[in-house]
Structures are given as C-alpha cells and as structure tokens.
Amino acid sequence: MTELSTMKDGVANQAEASDRVLQILAEAGRLFASKGFEGTSMRDIALACGISKSLLYHHFSNKDEIYARVAVGSTLELYLFVRDRIPDGPPSQKIRAFMVATAEYFRRYRWAWIASTTAFWNDPDRQRHKERLTRRDRFENFLRGLIQEAIDAGEIRKVDVPMTGRLILSSLNWMHRWYNPNKSATPEQIADTFFDMIFNGLRSGELVELPAAEPPKAGRRKSR
Amino acid sequence: MTELSTMKDGVANQAEASDRVLQILAEAGRLFASKGFEGTSMRDIALACGISKSLLYHHFSNKDEIYARVAVGSTLELYLFVRDRIPDGPPSQKIRAFMVATAEYFRRYRWAWIASTTAFWNDPDRQRHKERLTRRDRFENFLRGLIQEAIDAGEIRKVDVPMTGRLILSSLNWMHRWYNPNKSATPEQIADTFFDMIFNGLRSGELVELPAAEPPKAGRRKSR
DNA sequence: GTTTTCACCGACCGATCGGTCAAGCCCGGC
DNA sequence: GCCGGGCTTGACCGATCGGTCGGTGAAAAC
C-alpha cells in the first residue's frame, strides 16, 4: 500500500520525476513554507536551485503548477497514508493511530505540509485549491467516522463529533508553528501526548461522580 | 481596565487616530488577513478605502508600518485583555476564563488577529516581529503559570506544562481557519467546549457499563 | 489678508514581478 | 562526419510593485 513512497527530501508522491524536478519541488516547498506563495518569486526558486529562471518554465508551465505539485501533490495521499496506518482494535486506539500517523506525515513532508497549509489558504478563485480542500474534507470526515465509532462503542462521551474533530486536528495543524526539529520530541511523540491529554483529560483524580449540582466557580478544592 | 477599548470595526487599541486612519487599518487588516501581506498591494488598500495611494503615504510611512499598526497594535494588549478577565477562584476555572477571553479577543479583533498570525510569521527579518513575539511569549507564559497553579493545587495531573499550553493555544489559534461567524456558536462557546474536552477528557466515565467480554484497551491509562 | 497647515491627488520612478523566446549546449543514434 | 532532441540559458516583455514628487484646495492661525 506504500507504493506511493517515491520521495526525496520530503517531496511526497512525485513518481517518475527527474532529479531536477524533485530538486525544484524541494526548494520551492521550502521557500513557499518560509516566505509564502506571493513572497516567493520564480527568481528565488531558480537561485535556490542554482539554475536559470527559464529552466523552471521548461519543467513547469507556471508558478501555480509548481505550487500545485508541492502542495496538492503532497496532501494528495495524506488520507491514504493515514488510513493505511490505522490498526484494528478499539476505536480510541484508532484515533490515537490517526493522530500519530498524521504527525508522521507532517514530519516526513514538513515543508510541503507547511506550504500547503500556509499559502493563500482562502483564495476563493483558485481552482486547484478546491481539489485540495476536497481531499482535506475526506481526511476530516474519516476522523469524524472514527470519533463516532468510539462514541458508539462507549469508549468516549457523547461529545459533539465535528467539534471534537476540530480540536484533534487543531492540535496537529498548529504544530508547524512551534515545532522545532532539533528538539528532542518527535511529532509522533507529541501527537501521542496530545492524544493522552485529550482522551484522558487534564483533570486529576479518579472520576468521582460529577459535581453537576455545583456551580463551576466554587468547585474543586485540594489546597496545595 | 478597558481604557484601551478605543476600537472601530475590530481595530484594537488605536487611540487618538483619525477616522481615515481607522478606516485604512480596518481595510488593510481585512486584506492582509485574506490575501496575506505580500499578496496585498498598497493599491489594493487604497482602492478598498476609496482613496488615492498617495494618501496612504501621507498617514503612514510605508507598508510595514500599516502592518505593524494592524498586527502589533492589535496583539498589543491581548495579554492585558485576557489577564483582566481572569476571575478569582480555582485555577482550572482561570484556565477556562483564559480560553474564553482569548476567544472573545479573537471575535472582536478577528481580521487583525488573522493578519497578525498569518502574515510572514517566519520572516528571517524578525526585527519587526520581535516586539510582537515578545508579547506573545508573555501571553503564553501567563497561561503556563495558570497551568502550574492548577497542578500545584492538585486540580490537574502532573502534565508537561509547556506542552499543555501548546495544546490549549493550538485549539484557539487554529480556530480562524474554520470558524464561520454566520454559524451559531460564538468563539467563546467554542472555547468553552474545548476547555471541557481538554479538562475532562473525552473518555466516558466510570458510570459507563463494562461490556463484559470486551478486552481492555491496551493499557493507555496513566496512573498518577 | 496673508501665511501656515493639512488632507488629498495624479503622474511618475526604478525595481521586480511572472512569463516568453530564440538560440546554444550536450549527447546518443546514424 | 552530423543530426535530432532534450536540457539550459540570457535577453527581453508588459504589468505591477512599493514609494516619491509637486501640487491643489480649504480650513485654521496669525
């Protein structure tokens, strides 16, 4: 199921592409990620690759296509990548695997990930942007299915499913803003920690029954 | 506490500014938020305001200053805004108030918020960002203090404090990517829901019946 | 009544943008 | 030999970029 693993320097899913094309995609992804789409010129990309600007137009028809190959081509198989890493077992563990797999994808295709989630995300008139959003919808709906599964199995509370999905995805999607690859924790470890926090909650103590009758302010005490 | 509330159209903390300047800041914020800093030209801003491009340079020295007034000027008092809305009471409720207050700030200064968290966040020329980042650090450290407080009070588990802060902030910081002001839930309600999910966890409580033959869930429980 | 101040504008600047094009370079097949 | 065809280039294009300049008109200050 991982025949899609033709990759180089974090450029995902670019089968049958020449070394030069892969180089361009890698450099362009890095630049898009750090300076944005509008902030990156074709001259920047050419300079980073050590080639002439014209050569970019030999391999790609325009700037949008480079971005599409970086971003769309990279989110292309996120859904499949994650789906294939969901084990059989209790639904809650599937959610955990979902988070860890997404984090692994982030780690492997980091620049392309950042580029695709950063650049002109709300430009309404970009045709291929819609394709990417469709893929992300499928990805998100997959997560919602897992959450519903966990609810049906009685593993998690009867929470609002879309909102729960947004919380989980938020914890992963914001990671690129603070994640430092030189620090010790891997994205997978971070995702695992976040799953623990979200699934088990932060609250200490065994679940004694709810202080339901109590107004929130007066609540819990256990002075230090 | 709210002497900082000179605002118009979601432009925060722009005291003693003329109507025209406020208009420019509002329109520029909206454009920066939707098209990014590099993607927004001075002509765009002038056109949106119905004025000439020259007039922008009469009121501001350059494009960066407009961005600074929108973004830096808006995150300027986020820390104070939130701090003043933290009630006395149990630390966990302070964390909840922190989240709700941040969400309120997001709702009130939405465009400026998006512009400041979107545009060239990792520009190598961090100088103009340093001030803004310093403020955000203070903001984040404030949250970490609340988390530590809750741990010391025994209200929440002995979790990793910075990581917990990142989870909480992620849930809020990613909101602008999916929040729809036309839908029913307010940002404050969303933040409240997220607090409940993170604090109490998703896992169903003891009262859930144990399906007799069901194998246990692979030992994810963390004992404290 | 004169001068100063200030919001405002149209024309313009050099630089850079995305993109084009005709021509060279290189290398395997005749 | 020399012939095609893919890789590569520098010169160039119109458009647009951020920013400047000289000036206008009306109110405020003297």
UniProtKB/TrEMBL annotation, chains A, B:
Coiled coil: none annotated. Residues 41-60 bind DNA. Residues 18-78 form the HTH tetR-type domain. SUPFAM superfamilies: Homeodomain-like, Tetracyclin repressor-like, C-terminal domain. Keywords: DNA-binding, Transcription, Transcription regulation. It comes from the Bacteria. This is TetR family transcriptional regulator.
